Amino acid sequence: MPAYFNFAIKRLWQFVLVVFIGINIAYVITHVTPIDPVEQSISAVTSFGNTSPEAIADMRRSLQELYGLKGDWIEQYISFWRRILQADFGPSLSAFPAPVTSLIARALPWTFGLLAFTTLVSWSVGNLLGALAGYYRNNRSLKFFGVLAMALHPVPYYIVALSLMIVFGFIWPVLPITGGSAMDVQQGWNWQFVASVFHHSVLPALSLIMIGIGSWFLGMRSLVSNIITEDYVVYAEIGGVAQSRMMGSYIIRNALAPQVTGLAMSLGGIFNGAVITEKIFGYPGLGTLLVDGVYAGDYGLVLGVTSIAIIGVSLSVLVIDLIYPLIDPRVQVAS
Amino acid sequence: MKRIIFDLLKYNNEFRIGVFLILIVMTMAGLSFFSPYPPNDVFVVPPDAPPSADYWLGTTSRGQDVFWQLSIAIRNTLAFGLLVALLSRVISIVVGLSSGYLGGWVDRVLMAINDTFIVIPLFPILILFYFVLRDSMSTILLALIMSSLGWAYDSRLIRSVAMSLKTREFTGTSVFSGMTIFEILRREHLPYVLPIIFSTTLNNMNWSIGLEVTLAVLGFMDINTPTIGGMIYWANQHTAIVAGIWWWVTFPVLTVVATFVGLYLIAVSINEYIDPRSRLSRMGGGQS
Amino acid sequence: MRRLYTAFLATVMALSLVTLFSKNVEAQGIPQNIPRKELLILENPEGTIKNAGWFNIWAINAGSQSNGLQQAALDTLWYIDPEKGIDGAWDNSLAADKPIYNADFTEMRVKLRKGIFWSDGVEFTSADVKATVDIQIKNPNMRFSAVLRNNVASVDAPDAETVIFKLHKPNSRFHTNFTVRWGAIWILPKHVFDKVEDPTKFDFNKPVSLSAYTLHSFDPDGKWYIWQLREDWQRTSLGRYGKPGPKYLAYVDPGPPEKRVIAQLNHELDVIHDIAPEGMFTLAKQSKSTKAWFKGFPYGHPDPTLAGVIFNTQNEHLKNRDVRWALALMIDIRAVTMAAYRGAATISAIPVPPTGIHPDAYHKPLEAWVKDFEIDTGKSKHKPYDPNVSKQIADMLRPSMGDQIPKDDKEIKDSFGLGWWKTNLEAATELLERAGYRKQANQWMTPDGKPFTVRLMVEGDLRPVMTRAGTMIVQQWKQAGIDARVDVAQGTLLTRRSAGDFDAFIGWSVETWGGHQDLSYFMDSWHSAFLAEPGKPQPLRNWQRWSHPELDGIIEKIRKIGFDDPKGIELGHDYVKLVTREMPFIPLMAYNVFTAMDHTYWTGFPTSDNPYANPVTNWGNSRYMFVKLKPAN
Amino acid sequence: MTTQPILRVDHLKAHFRSSYFGVYREVPAVDDISFDVAPNEIFGLAGESSSGKTTLMKTIAGLITPPLELIGGKAQFSFMPPETNLYGADPAQLARIRWSKLSYIMQGSMNVLNPLRQIRSIFRDFAAVHIGGSNSDFETKTVNHLSRLRLDPSVLDAYPHELSGGMRQRVTIALATICRPDFIIADEPTTALDVIVQKEVLGMIRSIQREMGSSVLFVTHDMGVHAALTDKLGIMYAGCLVEAGRTADIFNAPQHPYTRHLIHSLPRIGDTVQRTGLTGTPPNLANPPSGCRFHPRCPLASDICRTERPMMRQIATEHRVACHAVAGDDA
User: Fold this and answer.
1) Crossing angle for the helix pair B228-237 and B190-217, to the nearest 10 degrees
2) Is the ipTM of this complex over 0.85?
3) Which CATH architecture has domain C37-265+596-631?
4) Does domain C301-593 have CATH number 3.10.105.10?
5) Which residues of B touch D55 (CB under 8 A)?
6) Which of B265, C322, C431, C444 is deepest in the core (most CB within 10 A)?
7) C253 close contact with A: CB closer than 8 A
8) For the segment A67-101, what is each residue's pLDDT rounded down to a tens digit?
9) For residue C211, what is the DSSP state?
10) Which of A117, A111, A157, A98 lies closest to A284 in space, CA to CA?
């Protein structure tokens, strides 16, 4: 156990380091963006109005002060970290003075709900079917599914989503194609809202699962078809080990290690949001927030979302590393 | 090598279909050199014509012939995917194998770098790069950036394979037999990670082309270089699907799908040929 | 295993069936608790609102503006309709009459209407107007603070119906700050803001309305806002025109263009703000109930905004008028309108948008002058104007669009515009040569021997039609031997435009009232006093960074005459002639907005036949449409 | 031959038939082989690599997967219903006899244990269904069995990678014997082990076999092992059985030239003479030599050897050989 403890400490330290480096890189890149939030705000405020040039110069000065863009970069950098340690990303510049954390808090449940669900479903179903297809190589319906998965998973996601939308929103309009829930339904734990959320998530979820399931399926199938030639599988077969045990503890269990790593990363990746899903299905979430933030030159917002994403992925990688010895007992010796 | 390809071609159906698809795609790409129209010019043919004898795949709302536009687009897209895949493969193999095998501080340092690359969310970074570089963001530069961002995931995968290989006996045997680290990695481990490299190369091409399409759909692209994503972008700008100009979207998508299915089938069948285990099981388990 | 697999398939099928049929088919994109017949659904082109619960429009850029807030809930002193208006383009809204200036334009007196009430029952008075000014001057970080601070010395409210603005310096156009063209300085409720500690941090949720609608509900994720007609709608400035038709308004984010088309085909979006021309054609073809501004081609509503190629005249190579004219003469406007709008554009050769009352005030009176306008290249003389371009465009379109294309000459000129400059590569060559440029192997070289490069900046996806126009112009320039490139500045355009970081871009620096001939709306900011040094941010709207002593003269003269003074039109003619000679930007066409209106639930939308208002949904002026809408049967 | 043999292999033929990457190959890997294994006997199979030993074993064990095909003959176990090969037998029937009557120790048994499973679970996976009883009963029986083999019960808690190679092999033997099977097929179980461990493992097989009275079909190319362990011995060459008999007889009086070669190539202490090996290499079975398959390498080859295939003939009690050159040719 002390060996494991040491390993965990090391890993934890690495996690901190990775998050630190990652957020710094994001900080630097967001700050070299040529988009000037002040100009962006001024344009938004004035482009439809009749505002005199002197007034604009005036406005520029006060905005710079308001957005805290004055002061040298060292001060800005230090105060950035000071705020982050208090889980505060400061105000959003494009939705001033709303705090970035509140914008993220609003978008996160949608993104998390949709993506965690679809990732888990496509992972488990894809792997299960993939394992079966790798084991029962001559099963017709599994073969057919394999062809389907192979043909479907390279289709650009955008096309899949758009086709689903056109089929179920236009040709046979039975599913909602916009928003996370129906209009004028109050958010909260009431049946109407929950049903509405479920109903609205069908198409986005379906599109994500259709695209996601294929690579897990194909990956698992090829892993399994390698594993079934391993001596221990052949031996267990000769030994008459029960089929379900074979499948579970001998084949899937051994094929699972790389897939679990993949799952952790996909789960971490959900903090990136699903920009195209959100765009096509008008689904609320982090992706739109991020792209909007980039457009508006809103570093506060972009950094906030990016940092959440960085922490999210690192955390799931950390967790997977910590539990990896449970998945593959051979690894503990190596670490 | 020639023989392998010949054998595969003659006797492996999957490989044949794969080669067939890729040949079509490559021919398509090759034809771009004979295109009668400059790739970026618009309104060189009547717009919105459906597929016909004159315009095999129809014309776009921008007055471009879909066939010729597609040929240059697939050429650029293939070159792009290949460049990203190759460059990022080099990094991920080197990092993954050395990290997995050497372990210790090398592993920790490499994995710290690796994990940083994994956790940095790609998408915003790409968009930010796009803003910073603006019109100097060519397709080639995008490929470079993507390959330097897109290796980390796979190198972790390769590392995990290398780590489990390391605990197998033959590694120890090789160490005692005095092979150098490089030799061990190359001769003992590479064959085992080769299947993974094959599938990751494919996935990486898939990923990079997919991301190219995504960026293009969102409008973050170099519109001076026609690509598949670019075609979809323009079609989208002209609401081609609801306007009934389906051929503008369908043919590029079919081409991308053909490319991927083709590459996948080729990779799978070559893999089978190379991988001693699956080959053995086909050949009939060694007559000892 | 097989059993597991079957069970899985069965579950998937069962789930999908339940999902598909558990809900009634109609209730997808529309409110469930509001009768559809009482509801008008409009697009809010701002998309998804990040900070949805923020209604304090007087703070900078914090929430949404066109989510119904400025169209349905807020009000200010005057409106100028970009078209004819219900009762003339000018409408006294909260003000009882036009503004009254003193002789030297240093004081503006406003008489207010009586009997207007806030939605919480408090009466609107001059104190609200005064507070609007005072509070914003006091808080420099508020939206209209700078403009008020710069102009207003003091504001008095001697009685409940009178407001007197004392100005720092003469300004004959001060009232335009309170005159809605898209938006304006909205009047804030004093009784609410008086209780607020820091008005820049106040969200104004739920907003107190001054116009006919109040907030009913909104999506905390910023996708939709629903407004409800006030019981006491008669106590608002809109009450004069009768009861608004829709009891509810929904401003929604319908998503990308193809979804807007689908939503309207499904009758779930009554008014689309704007779509690609092809989307408009699709709607016109597939939906009997969809109508647009023009009943046939070119459909779209021409905004009083003039799209053009704006040069950075501080750029070394583009300083020269001859070069700019040469670039203009390389353009074939017919191909540009085809590429941009599929021909559905209203072109203009002169720097005034060809919309509203402008054709009568500027285009037609000046056509004779334009026809005679001559370019002397030193080698030869050319009359570049071609009065028949719009007819040629109509003829080009007729084979594919058939009867949708008007045949009558007047109708063609009304919808497609008058003439434009004819492509003249010979004149362009001579002009460039005079400027010291040389052509080597079909490639123009600058006087210092480098290839002549022009990067034309476009906004990409955010302005698709403009992007298409830019792409076409670049193609034409390339064919003429210029090393031209499209430079997509999606998201960065605003910053780069202000920084002068471009050779040329497709956009507009000319925006007008449309319904009023006064040009100072944009022109005043073109005065050389506001011109920025290269590299410094240029305030709006002189994006071309161009100045001319003659222009300064015109601007100064306009400042000294009244808003309605007919002399303004003469000075406008001087402006047109000057800019045509100098070509600091190439005027192309009106910015046509394809606002599509579905007549399934509502009728009475404004059209070119009945141009009582601007239907474009995000304009504050679109509120006049509410009172004219009637339920369809 | 008084007792009923536990295994009777009768004219067994199995070929590899493959059409892979264009080459159609028919490899007669098991070519007309007959022998018996009596109860409580260790029958050894010897031969060079690729002489068909493993294929023969697989055919006997019914592990016939394409491209291997059963062409003819049978391999009859006494505990199976008459006239049934394991191959093609009723799965329920197979499940009953597997491990309880017939078990295996595989070649390369380093990797036969699932690396992600504790030894305890592996034992349970293989044997619990045959032994039955509660978990704790099973645990007790396992521990007893291990201690009989002088294995510490703590190995049950280990994962395969935590055990040394020899240990793992011993665990595998324990696993193969826990159900006290009547017949054990052991394919090169000691090949990868160092000599000392090898000796221990062989001793272990010997003692457990004695104790249980099982029969063992033991395959190895190592003649030294055969000499030390087996009761009877069959020599294989190129898919054919060329000589079979009591181990002692064969070592004392090898008949077939190939057998002689195998035995003479065993090193002996004090030997200083350079041993002459056979010339040539084992034949390509896809295209076997005509007549006697050994003739291209045989020092005694005559014309008949090139044309006619020698049959197995009894030359002494329980000693058969297939060679034209042995004891006059009267066939």
Assistant:
1) 20
2) no
3) 3-Layer(aba) Sandwich (3.40)
4) yes
5) 287-288
6) C431
7) yes
8) 766 667 788 888 888 888 888 888 887 787 788 99
9) S
10) A111
